[in-house]
User: Fold dual-specificity kinase from Echeneis naucrates.
Amino acid sequence: YLFLVDRDEHVAVKVVRNIECFRNVAKSEISVLEEINSLDDDNRFACVRMLDWFEHEGHICIVFELLGVSTFEFLPFSVEQIRQMAFQIFRAVCFLHRNKLTHTDLKPENILFVSSAYDYETVKRWRRLTLRSLDVKVVDFGTATFDHEHHESLISTRHYRAPEVILDLGWNQSCDVWSLGCVLMEFYLGCTLFPTHSSKEHLAMMEKVLGPIPPHLLRQTRKQHYVLHERLDWDEQSSTDDYVRTHCKPLKKASEDERQLFDLLGCMLEYDACRRITLEEALWHPFFGPMRTKKSKNCFT
Ligand SMILES: *[C@@H]1O[C@H](CO)[C@@H](O)[C@H](O)[C@H]1NC(C)=O
Assistant:
């Protein structure tokens, strides 16, 4: 990223390397951004705005509005902060879904604060950084996929990858819901929910947090090397299992406020994509009740 100054307006420019596959991703990102920005003339949904694009010596350069740091830089967040951020993110991604798009790469690094302006706050003699605004925007539409387009079999950054993708069962918008479930958990925990680099270990971690993977999904998968007798082929006595067990604990609910967040997360981290909550439905979950009374009715349309 470069930062340019033009007529006192600061913008961000993404310069894409002059390599065929990167150029194709950039061209795809431009066409997605043209479409979604034009569908959202009044800037009501929190998707980044593309201002322009051009080519310079074979490098595609995409000009964006300038945003702040990513949410990854400010982990963890309180339940109240998560509520405010998730409401904007869900509305933005729900807008993509209504327009037949799946983002496919939702993660804290792809959710940016609109402004990084902060204050110092003193809490119990600790000085703490506090962002002035929790306004966020979703970025990186390079791998966003329209319903009619070819669906790559392997999508998403590992930690946020849905079980149907790992099991190669086919995917659609619901894989974004899974990713956002992992993102909100990370917002809450301050670290990734599934810290792994292997698919089988990833599935074992899911079982530690969420219980057994339903047998009908394991029967359907083409990845039969993950399966033994309709169960995940995993040795509970192994040293890798020790690692998995220490890093992944069942979701536990503490306060009343957390109860609603965890209830929503349970619906988002549903193994079976057919039964997983949609973002449309999630926006009506009681967790967002305080947002609905605060804002006017039309924030749902
Ligand atoms: C996505 O796939 C699931 C499972 O196959 C299906 O139940 C759901 O209706 C699909 N959703 C969309 C938006 O097409």
Remarks:
- Residues 172-174, 273-274 surround 2-acetamido-2-deoxy-beta-D-glucopyranose (CB under 6 Å).
